[in-house]
Amino acid sequence: MSASSLLDVIIKEIRAAAQEEAAAIIQKAEEEAKRILEEAQERAIRLREEKRQRLLEEARRAVEREFAPKRRELRQRAYMEQYKVLSEELRGLIMEVLEKLRHDPAGYRVYLERALGAAVKSLGSSIVVHPCEGERDLLEEVVRGFAKSNPSSAQISIGEEVNCDGGFLARTPDGRVYFNATFGARASEVFERLLPEVFQYVFSTKR
Amino acid sequence: MGEEGGVRRPSWVEEIDIRVVIEEQRKADETVAEARKRAEEILEEARKKAKEILAQSEAVHVDIKGVIDEERRRVEQELAAFIKEREERLAGLKLMLEEIRDVIRRRVLEELLRWV
């Protein structure tokens, strides 16, 4: 090989190597640029979506705040309506049962006897019972029957009649402790006791 | 005895003009340097565009009024449905109470005669 053709080869080699390196540098830069832009696009889409969602959420929350009192009021009203329906029904049925009991001599007597037993148990060995107006004779009869079947029981005396619609009022002789077995008091007690039960029954078996 | 002065160079080496090679190498280095400069420009341009793209993402247009109106309609419908359901539930409750009236009556009588 002559010196001049060898030089040509070397020059060509040097040029080719430089071109190749330059092309590689540009290609790498272009790929990196492409990646930067793609990442930016993706991030921009994500940011836009996040911001959009944030704005939508804020708008929804604003509307929720606006309607919150109304929503609360409706829920309360719904609860109150249910309570009203249930409590009125229960009160009505208690009154109905008491009325029936009052006009059932045997049943009413059972009521008075049991109430008397409970009064004695609650008030002690000596008590005064006050019948409702017009029921003195009946209560005396019940007291006699009670004393007969409970000979060692308390000493029971009959006090003056009081204004009530069934049952009686009992007290200790000194009047310090009372036992209210009138229908009015009993209706309230039974109402308080049964209302949660009725609620539970209705809402646990509701279709 | 052998020759003095070390290894003898081939004759063609003496004939290559080394200055031409050095000049060519200088041009090659320039080409590569230019490519690097261009690459940096390409990257710089890409970074600038990326910044613009991200800056544009801040400017999101959402029809807030439209969304609020739509939400209002949705909540109003929901409340109307709640009211309807409440009325139905109340009617169902009344019906059920009618059905269990005897059960309640029995329990009332039991409680009236039960002294605790």
**Biggest pleated-sheet summary of chain A:** 4 strands, mixed
Radius of gyration of chain B, rounded? 48 Å
Percent of residues in helices of chain B: over 70%
Flag low-confidence runs of chain A.
Answer: none
Q: Taking all residues together, what is the mean pLDDT of chain B?
A: 88
Q: So what's the overall shape of chain A?
A: rod-shaped
The main pleated sheet of chain B reads as: none
* Helix share bin of chain A: over 70%
Notes on the structure:
The complex is a heterodimer of chains A (207) and B (116). Chain A has 207 residues and is an alpha+beta fold. Chain A contains four helices and four strands, in the order ααβαβββα. A four-stranded mixed β-sheet of chain A has the order 2-1-3-4. At the A-B interface, α1, α2 and α4 of A face α2, α3 and α4 of B.
What attributes characterize this protein structure?
heterodimer; A: 207 residues; alpha+beta; four-stranded mixed beta sheet; 4 helices; 4 strands; B: 116 residues; mainly alpha
What is this structure, in a nutshell?
The complex is a heterodimer of chains A (207) and B (116). With 207 residues, chain A is of the alpha+beta class. Chain A is 75% helix and 8% strand.
